[in-house]
Amino acid sequence: MKVLVVGAGAREHALAHKIAASERVEAVYAAPGNAGTARVGTNLDVAADDVPGIVRVARELGVGLVVVGPEGPLVAGVVDALRAVGIPTFGPTRAAARLEGSKAFSKDFMKHHGIPTAAYGVFDDAEAAKAWVRELGRPMVVKADGLAAGKGVVVAATVEESLAAIDAIMLERAHGDAGRRVVVEERLEGPEISFHVVCDGTRAIPLAAAQDHKRLLDGDEGPNTGGMGAYSPPPMVDPTLEGSIMDRVVLPTLEGMAEDDCPFTGVLFVGLMLVDGQPRVLEYNVRFGDPETEVLMARLASDVVPLLLGSARGDLEGVELTWGAPAALCVVMASEGYPGSYPKGRPIHGIEAANALPGVSVFEAGTRAEGDATVTSGGRVLCVTASGGDVHEAAERAYAGVRAIDFEGAHHRGDIGWQAR
Ligand code: AMP
Ligand code: GLY
Question: Would 85 be classed as within a structural domain?
Fold first, then answer.
């Protein structure tokens, strides 16, 4: 079977790498991919959000499965368009992708179906939103309703900051039309975890729990980023908590979506905060987390294709997963200036040397081939991933990988996995 992976990050490289290892797969394509996906398959010159272009190449190549990485094309309906021409596609339909595409939709959905989350209000009018914050007199979290590349959330420390965030999002349109409407919600405290389940509309197969590190600097300081590293498993998740996440969050979500006539297929990635040890949903994502996927793929022993294909076809009956490495951890190496603006085109040295180290796989994010060289082409450049017998060993191996790699201005966090080490 030929498989097409849509997207261009380290998540897509990790997926393409794992898919290429399947006996059932003869060729892997990536649209548009990066220098990493080109090492395991063939890159196509089609943008991830070019829905007609994706449909065209998938038909021309005769692919048997399309796996969609990022949320943009899902919210734009790429799954509906591919399934309409008979191509099995891993991901949710446009209607189901609203769980991520609209925070107001997801909050109302959770309220309606009794799924634990922070108390909130939805506002189309900045003055009304601000009046509510003033009345409460507490710092609140302000979220742009629509997709904002992970940057549409302000966790305010003061009432004034909450009011300023409402102005920035709604009046100054810091994230464009995504900020026409806002969700204002209660600020929760507790450790955050990433919980992924692969779904076929009614069934959900849980993947291993993981934890991301969104802040730029050690000690969880500095600005938010797309994610500076991740590891699995987080020590705060035990089988009892996993059972409670399945019973109180995942299954009611699947039942609710089916009841509302948009059954959920693909991967549901629930961002949870543990408040007094109990799960509360911060957000739904309708795609794999990045960099969580890199550690999940590093730990997964089973062939991933039956899982992806079963979900795409709406039938996960009989699919079972086995996990290999007890732990995995990844460290993101970023460009100088990230998460602000950054230079491109800087030569990267040492990827091969890092890949040769025990347990290490370098998944590439913002990289591009330039002749024989690999150069930087994005903010998050590499995701240096390692498996190990425990989180400690995975961390030592991943950091050995980081030390083997060099490009001008590279920076990374030194404390990934600190809650488990
Ligand atoms: P989201 O994109 O909704 O996950 O929000 C981005 C980040 O903001 C999350 O990973 C949390 O760290 C933080 N966050 C979101 N909602 C809340 C909340 N209600 N209370 C505290 N922090 C939050
Ligand atoms: N790692 C967080 C995300 O993918 O949204």
Answer: yes
> Would you say residue 150 has pLDDT above 80?
no
Q: How many domains does the chain have?
A: 4
Q: Kindly indicate the confidence band of residue 128, based on its pLDDT and cuts at 50, 70 and 90.
A: confident
202/283 same-domain check: yes
> Is 150 near ligand 2, meaning CB less than 6 Å away?
yes
Phi, psi of 210 (to 5 degrees): -145, 170
Which ligand number lies closest to the CA of residue 275? 1
Q: Is the CB of 294 under 6 A from ligand 2?
A: no
Residue 25 lies in a domain: yes
Q: Which atom of ligand 2 is nearest to the CA of 292?
A: 1
Question: Does 198 share its domain with 170?
Answer: no
Are residues 166 and 278 part of one domain? no
Residues 85, 150, single domain; the answer is no
User: For 350-365, what is the mean pLDDT?
Assistant: 98
* Three-state secondary-structure class, residue 241: helix
Instruction: State if residue 188 touches ligand 1 by the CB under 6 angstroms criterion.
Output: yes
**How much of the chain exceeds pLDDT 70, in percent?**
100
Cα atoms in the 13 Å half-sphere on the side-chain side of 87: 28
Q: Atom 11, ligand 1: which residue's CA is nearest? A: 282
Stretch (H or E) spanning 72: helix 71-75
Chain centroid offset of residue 210 CA: 11
Please, are residues 42 and 34 in contact by the beta-carbon 8 Å criterion?
A: no
Q: How many CA within 13 A on the CB side of residue 122?
A: 13
Is 282 close to ligand 1, i.e. is its CB under 6 Å away? yes
* 319 lies in some domain: no
Q: Which domain holds residue 26?
A: 2-91
